[in-house]
Amino acid sequence: MSEFYERVEEGIRKSYARRLFKPFAKAIVEYGLVKPNDKIAVCMSGGKDSALMAKLFQELKRHNKFPFELVFLVMDPGYSPANRAKIEENARLLNIPITIFETDIFENVFEIEKSPCYLCARMRRGHLYAKAKELGCNKIALGHHYDDVIETILMGMLYGGQVQTMLPKLKSANFEGMELIRPMYFVREKDIIAWREEYGLEFLRCACKFTADLAEGEVDGKRQKVKELIRTLKAEDPQIEQNIFKSVENVTLATVIAYKDKNGVRHRFDEE
Question: Cβ atoms within 10 A of the Cβ of 271, count?
Answer without folding.
Answer: 7
